From TrEMBL:
InterPro entries: 6-blade_b-propeller_TolB-like, LRP1-like_beta_prop
Signal sequence residues: 1-27
A Pfam match: DUF5050
Annotated organism of origin: Thermoactinomyces mirandus
Domain Prolow-density lipoprotein receptor-related protein 1-like beta-propeller residues, every copy: 32-281
Descriptive protein name: PD40 domain-containing protein
Amino acid sequence: MKKVSRKVTGVVGALILATSLSLPVYAKDEAKSILFSGGLDKPGIYVFDPDTLKTKQITSGSSVDLSPDGDLITYINNDSVYMANSNGSEPVRLTNGKFPEFDSSPRWSPDGKKIVFARSDGNIYTVDAANRKVTRLTNAEDGVYHSSPDWSPDGEKIVFHSSDKNGYADLYMMNSDGSNITQITGKNEKNSSEYAPHFSSDGKYLLFEKSKEGETDIYVMNLATKQAQNITKNFDQPVSGSIWSEDGNKVLYTVNEEKGKEEESSRFYIMNKDGSNKTLLKLQVDFATPSEWQSLNPEKEDNFLNKVKNFLFE
């Protein structure tokens, strides 16, 4: 799979990955719309109706994630973690990022009480949604940047990727309190990067991306055996992001295509978790800033957003 190499260099490179990979989430039925963030002219979080092909902005920001009960979203705005109603109303600032320090990749815990996120100092944090207490979970060495955290379905584990001083990223897992950090990829392979990990809904598999020698592919790892399968090995187009369907049987991903000499657009596809049966979604958007997706029930637009996953277009 041809693509620009994902070697990560320095704070900016690490946080490009950290704003992380919030990907198309598979809608459970065809009546549902999609919430995403992006846009060149007016960046923000939008609702896309697949029937009318119309979009509506609900708030500014990026890296959106939905609370487990569907009532709230968390997202990044003004370099900080925010929380709001699922229609974008009544935003509350939870952290106080101020450039050059900034936060990224917010993700709700399965119980809806905390939000895990990455910060530009290279560490992973949580913030309590009720009292706004921020807790640092990691102590990254200088030149090392942890990013793109994701909770296990039971809330006991957090997976993330970490870039080393040479600029390559590997996947790690830790307990939800920050203890027992364990490396799970890259031990026997150099000059490659694994990043943007996502737990399957049953907690048995990890979906992630791997970049080596200018090629990027999507992998699925069996956590019991630690065996990973390349599910885009035979694809002829560059992929830029991936996320599980709600049932864990399908994967949604992004293909960036050149429209002209200086233009690019993004198309979104669904495939089986073994890489078969690739299907194009209707939505095509300009290649732009980090874009997040989630499915939305248009009949109750203020609520019942399905689980949102984060991904980034590099």
